[in-house]
């Protein structure tokens, strides 16, 4: 049995980045950039008006004759003298001769002339060529997570294809004779299967939208066979249940029979002690405990960082924060605890019912309260670490 920190470092060491692929910018949301990108153009590509108004050569004359009009998208080679102006609109090309734009609200139009009521400073209201970024300058660095704004930034520079780390193919293998899919009739002795749909939802949080779900009965032969097939097709295999010490828990043996290397089995923690982590080549296997709260805890704390590492993320763990605990807590287990808690701006409360078999508390919790195995007593109002998950 190992400690939580050891388990986390073994996972980080053994989770290789996925291969790099080129994708269309419009499909890149949530991916991690696998190359540093430099701008192919100046942006703006020309001097743009930042206002609706009049472009002119800065002058003391307050009445100018309006000789032309420049709309966004137009280009005209307009010559201007000191007593002339061009009607101009936001985003339009500023005639080469002009150096200033006066906003419409500071002028009065009179026939073919305009009176400047309030003079702008020289060079006002013009966005310089390359003001946002110049050709050859850094757009975004390798390992940046691609957001909607980043996609917009690429697009405004005319970038259509970028290199990202591909997403791993994930399978969820559900074990257990007692399990019935929600929506089916619940016979005596059976329970509804909830881990697959829960893990599917949690996977969406890192952009893994369609894991493949497999189901298997508690049989060594059938479990070995399905794991063999999963290992040839998927980069990450999440197995639910069958990893404890019961007579019908066959997952560990089936994994070893398939040549999966055991990197650790069992962590000194509650919930989620019987977690197995192994690998075969670059494929990773997490055999998660069947108890639903244990399963989800192990997913967040261990499987999620592995997924993030493979996806190219640099910060792979859920961030920790400090809060004052609202009541004293005693840890007599000598295990690290991931308690379900509810935090606000200042405090955190340990929720009732911490059973690993139940999701009723987890469903209203917004964080884990992290109590290291070395800590026996926490006093009321003591600052402790929490790990928000929503
Ligand atoms: P196991 O780890 O297979 O011994 O399962 C531990 C407990 O979790 C048992 O009470 C199982 O019935 C329950 N369990 C296992 N898998 C699931 C699942 N997919 N959905 C809901 N409960 C499960
Ligand atoms: Mg089972």
Describe it for me?
GO terms for molecular function: metal ion binding; molybdopterin molybdotransferase activity. It comes from Flavobacterium muglaense. Pathway: Cofactor biosynthesis; molybdopterin biosynthesis. Its cofactor is Mg(2+). Pfam families: MoCF_biosynth, MoeA_C, MoeA_N. By secondary structure, the chain is α/β, with parallel strands linked by helices. It folds into four domains: 4-17 and 167-311, Molybdenum Cofactor Biosythetic Enzyme, Chain A (3-Layer(aba) Sandwich); 20-39 and 142-165, Alpha-Beta Complex (Molybdopterin biosynthesis moea protein, domain 2); 48-127, Beta Complex (Molybdopterin biosynthesis moeA protein, domain 3); 321-388, MoeA, C-terminal, domain IV (Beta-clip, Beta Barrel). The protein has six helices and 28 strands. The protein has helices at residues 4-14, 148-156, 195-204, 220-233, 251-257, 292-311, and strands at 20-24, 37-38, 48-49, 53-56, 63-70, 84-88, 100-103, 107-110, 113-116, 126-127, 138-140, 161-165, 170-175, 179-180, 191-192, 212-216, 236-240, 261-265, 269-270, 276-280, 283-288, 321-325, 329-330, 336-343, 347-350, 367-371, 377-378, 383-388. Strands 7-4-6-5-9-8 form a six-stranded mixed sheet, with no helix packed on it. A six-stranded mixed sheet has the order 16-13-17-21-20-18, sandwiched between helices. Strands 22-25-24-26-28 form a five-stranded mixed β-barrel. The longest helix is centred in the C-terminal third of the chain and has 20 residues, at 292-311. It starts with a helix and ends with a strand. The mean pLDDT is 97. Residues 174, 176, 178-179, 191, 193-195, 240-242, 244, 246, 249, 289-292 line the site of adenosine monophosphate.
């Amino acid at each position: 049995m190992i400690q939580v920190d050891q388990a986390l470092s073994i996972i980080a060491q053994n989770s290789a980045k996925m291969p790099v692929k080129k994708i269309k910018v419009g499909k890149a949301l949530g991916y991690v950039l696998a190359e540093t990108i430099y701008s192919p153009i100046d942006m703006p590509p020309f001097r743009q008006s930042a206002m609706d108004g009049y472009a002119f050569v800065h002058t003391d004359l307050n009445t100018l004759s309006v000789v032309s009009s420049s709309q966004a998208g137009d280009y005209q080679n307009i010559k201007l003298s000191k007593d002339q102006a061009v009607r101009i609109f936001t985003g339009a090309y500023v005639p080469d001769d002009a150096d200033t734009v006066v906003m419409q609200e500071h002028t009065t139009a009179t026939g073919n002339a305009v009176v400047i009521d309030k003079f702008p400073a020289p060079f006002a209201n013009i966005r310089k060529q390359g003001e946002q970024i110049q050709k050859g300058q850094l757009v975004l660095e390798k390992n940046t997570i691609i957001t909607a704004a980043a996609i917009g930034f690429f697009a405004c520079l005319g970038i259509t294809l970028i290199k990202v780390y591909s997403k791993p193919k994930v399978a969820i293998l559900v074990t257990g004779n007692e399990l019935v899919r929600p929506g089916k009739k619940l016979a005596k002795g059976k329970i509804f299967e909830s881990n697959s749909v829960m893990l599917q939802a949690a996977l969406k949080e890192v952009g893994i939208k369609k894991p493949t779900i497999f189901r298997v009965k508690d049989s060594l032969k059938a479990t070995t066979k399905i794991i063999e097939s999963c290992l040839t097709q998927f980069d990450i295999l999440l197995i639910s249940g069958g990893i404890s010490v019961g007579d019908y828990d066959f997952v560990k043996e089936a994994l070893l029979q398939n040549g999966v290397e055991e990197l650790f089995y069992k962590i000194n923690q509650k919930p989620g002690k019987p977690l197995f982590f192994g690998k075969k080549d670059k494929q990773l296997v997490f055999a998660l405990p069947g108890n639903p709260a244990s399963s989800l805890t192990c997913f967040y704390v261990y499987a999620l960082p592995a997924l993030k590492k493979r996806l190219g993320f640099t910060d792979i763990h859920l961030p920790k924060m400090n809060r004052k605990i609202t009541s004293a807590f005693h840890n007599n287990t000598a295990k690290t605890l991931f308690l379900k808690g509810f935090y606000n701006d200042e405090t955190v409360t340990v929720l009732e019912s911490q059973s690993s078999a139940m999701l009723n508390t987890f469903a209203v919790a917004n964080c884990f309260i992290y109590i290291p195995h070395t800590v026996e007593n926490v006093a009321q109002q003591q600052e402790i670490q929490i790990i928000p998950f929503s």
